[in-house]
Amino acid sequence: MPDNRCPYCSGALRISKLTCEDCGLGLEGTFATPRLSRLEIGEQRFVELFVLASGSLKQMAELLEVSYPTVRSRLDKLIARLKEEQARDEERKRRILDDIEAGRILPKQGMRMIENL
User: For the chain, N or C: smaller number of CB within 10 Å?
Assistant: First the structure.
């Protein structure tokens, strides 16, 4: 998976095209990305290993060949990052609800946008 930051300005990248692997049909637009996909590649790999290790920090330390406190520290940093992403999504949700209330977007469209956060 490519990095999720612009190589030019380091801004967040958004998915703008989806293509079917079977028939080649393409959809263009702006698509929401799940929180976990917004993490850096190393953070995503850490989450994957954490799940495969059934959440065992001891097993993670063995797999990564680092100390338990190092794994705990990385997990704490990851938790903080996910909380930041959650807060961003809540801010986006608030802006969408404001847009609905102000009549800038239709309620049905706004609700679809919120569901895709």
Answer: N
Residue 101 CB burial class (10 angstroms; 0-12, 13-18, ≥19)? exposed
Q: How far is residue 74's CA from residue 5's CA, in Å, rounded to a whole number?
A: 21
- Residue 86 in contact with residue 80, Cβ under 8 Å? no
Averaged pLDDT, 99-107 = 95
pLDDT class of 1 with cuts at 50, 70, 90: very low
Q: How far apart are the first and last CA of the chain?
A: 20
Neighbouring residues of 31: CB distance < 8 A, sequence distance ≥ 6: 14, 15, 16, 18, 116
Q: How many domains does the chain have?
A: 1
Q: What are the angstrom distances between the C-alpha of 69 and each of 36, 76, 113?
A: 23, 10, 40
* pLDDT, average across residues 23-36: 87
CATH number for position 54: 1.10.10
Domain that holds residue 110: 34-115
